[in-house]
Amino acid sequence: MNDLLWRCGFIVVVGAFLWILHRFIGSYPAVLPKSEQRSKNIMAALLLGGMAILFPLLMMDWGSPWLDRMFLDWVPNLVAQAIFGTMIYLLLPVLLVTRFFRWAAPDFGLSIKNRSSDVTIFAVAFGVGSGCIAYFTGQSNISIQTLPLEELLLLIYSNAFLEEFFHRGTIQSLLERAVGQANAIVWGGVLFGLTHVGLDVAALGVTGSTVVVISALMLQTIAGWMFGIIYMKTRSLWPGTACHYLANWLPSILVLAVG
């Protein structure tokens, strides 16, 4: 019951910060030019979203057990998982999008330019704040794990960056060119939430509570909307990557640092 109350309260708080970010921090940029191939944009976004839903399920049922048998040492195991992630979340969208839409690096948000320092400050502060709250309350949507420093460093790339590149830099950018800014954020966030369904269903076997699973899916979708607004208002992947990483893994960093 305490876990459920914490989740519901956290959803309300994150939703409030999402509204503040949307209404009062930074400004939305000019809409990206409409694609002349809007239906292809939507199909590409849905294809990638479907791959992102399927890939974690395949990794849980097949990939991770196979890697555990292949690599007894955790270091090459993690590197192999990062390579698989790179193939799905980086190489696949780059090949698809550059092949059909001729994008360059800035179109994916890979730019040092940042159009809103206020949103960047919000992103980092929110990541630190949510990570600290998770640590001090003992409640985390990811779970608070004791992880070695090497793994925490690798997760900057394999978790935060790859997901932001895939969902915001690619899928949301594809959708914005087809259905506009608001719809791109909404549906991009929904797809982001759905990619966690496998993990949420696996958690059902541990908690036995469908309410907890549903609340996790709601929080992940809201997080997708927040990362989407951060990306759109800055036109850069880096603030959202920092926020994503700190929200997920700052609790584990604090466990490593102070116990």
In short:
The protein has 259 residues and is an all-alpha fold.
Structure commentary:
The chain has 259 residues and is an all-alpha fold. It has one domain (36-104, 115-258). It is built from nine helices and no strands. The chain has helices spanning 2-24, 38-70, 74-101, 117-137, 149-179, 181-194, 197-207, 210-234, 237-258. The longest helix is centred in the N-terminal third of the chain and has 33 residues, at 38-70. It starts with a helix and ends with a helix.
As for the number of domains, it is 1
Report strand %: under 5%
Number of strands: 0
Low-confidence stretches: none
Q: Main sheet?
A: none
Number of helical segments? 9
Helix content: over 70%
Structural class: mainly alpha
Question: What's the average pLDDT?
Answer: 91
SSE ordering: HHHHHHHHH
Distance separating the two termini:
26 Å
Radius of gyration: 18 Å
Broad shape: globular
Features:
259 residues, mainly alpha, 9 helices
